[in-house]
């Protein structure tokens, strides 16, 4: 059973193929509010819920807000090719663009920049340097390339005057909340305060907050951001234009390591299998990249253009799932997951009961990994906390997490190794064991005679994790 989760972006290539994505292994469907219209996202969300129910698999929905992203306006021919040494004017107002002048969606961009500043277009496809600020901005093309309408415009994040939450974000958030999504991803997080501002807008909504780390400022404020968020995404596209490309692999490892250490789910994203946007097989380098994310301990890998607009979206999902599964099965000796005894458990829970719960979860993972007779770990969880602690311990056995709360079940779909199952609440720990045994020998197909490590709270719903039991299926 694959433990690393698969996040796929839904787009024109997959609007009508969501059941195929679910069959291929989709765990979390990403709705990218930077593209498409509200009706597209409504139809996609409804299709995900239907396909999930039909397949009997839990699939969560993540809404990705646009964020304070500067984009080019419409280009008269759809795209332009910029030549090195040429001059390009950038206006802060609308109007079609060409090889000599373009517009952006940020009217004040000219006051944010100074002569000598670097501007990257389309994730670095072309590079400009500011010759004169103002409106229009005069730039020189220092590296040419082909640019399409609505391409991203990257400037140093500390210079950007746009607010952390834009009017477009608020509009997207209203749509996402109406759809009942399970996670909200905040784009271009610069500091922990940005996340706290968004959490205020969520109010009492039970939605997981995902911080997209794609600015240098966010990397520098990583520890505070981990405190303020429910999950993180290593968004390597925009991060790769803020930070020199040679630094990205080490920054990624640092983010994944710290996220695992403090119990925050971490998604590695962008260009994971980029060549599969146009080809039916990934490159060897892409396969290695995805496998490295798995061995580093990431909870999930994410496909973007591959499944949103690519020619082979289902093949891409199958390829990602195969790479992750093989890396898990054969790469245990190469894993770089922090040792449980060295983890900063104070971030997981600060109260004494929380530390005891972590100790039990860690012991359950260790027991499962040491005893070859153990086929799985299982728990009943009211809030999701028991399953989260078990996932943070990074066992090599699947974790079956039962809960009567459908919101908890869907949000656990992002956690590495967790197979969430909707079930009625048992009366006591004996009933938990009966529930686990019935499901594992039935729906899960585990053999009679295999052992399962059962973790629970007693009394159920009134205590944190405080019970660990080894049960032999069929006994």
Short description:
By secondary structure, this protein is α/β, with parallel strands linked by helices. It has helices at 18-24, 38-55, 109-112, 167-179, 192-202, 216-220, 222-228, 236-242, 248-261, 284-296, 305-308, 313-330, 352-370, 385-392, 406-411, 429-441; strands spanning 5-10, 28-32, 60-64, 70-71, 79-82, 87-91, 101-103, 118-121, 126-132, 137-143, 145-148, 152-154, 183-186, 208-213, 231-235, 266-269, 300-303, 374-380, 399-403, 418-422, 451-456, 467-472.
Lay out the secondary structure:
Blueprint: E1 5-10, H1 18-24, E2 28-32, H2 38-55, E3 60-64, E4 70-71, E5 79-82, E6 87-91, E7 101-103, H3 109-112, E8 118-121, E9 126-132, E10 137-143, E11 145-148, E12 152-154, H4 167-179, E13 183-186, H5 192-202, E14 208-213, H6 216-220, H7 222-228, E15 231-235, H8 236-242, H9 248-261, E16 266-269, H10 284-296, E17 300-303, H11 305-308, H12 313-330, H13 352-370, E18 374-380, H14 385-392, E19 399-403, H15 406-411, E20 418-422, H16 429-441, E21 451-456, E22 467-472
Looking at this protein, list some descriptive labels.
about 475 residues; alpha/beta; TIM Barrel; M1 Pyruvate Kinase, Domain 3; Pyruvate Kinase, Chain: A, domain 1; 3 domains; eight-stranded parallel beta barrel; seven-stranded mixed β-sheet; 16 helices
Question: Can you tell me about this structure?
Answer:
The protein has 475 residues and is α/β, with parallel strands linked by helices. It folds into three domains: 5-67 and 164-331, TIM Barrel; 70-159, M1 Pyruvate Kinase, Domain 3; 340-472, Pyruvate kinase, C-terminal domain (Pyruvate Kinase, Chain: A, domain 1). It is built from 16 helices and 22 strands. It has helices at residues 18-24, 38-55, 109-112, 167-179, 192-202, 216-220, 222-228, 236-242, 248-261, 284-296, 305-308, 313-330, 352-370, 385-392, 406-411, 429-441; strands at residues 5-10, 28-32, 60-64, 70-71, 79-82, 87-91, 101-103, 118-121, 126-132, 137-143, 145-148, 152-154, 183-186, 208-213, 231-235, 266-269, 300-303, 374-380, 399-403, 418-422, 451-456, 467-472. The protein has an eight-stranded parallel β-barrel, surrounded by six helices. Helix 10 crosses helix 12 and helix 13 crosses helix 14.
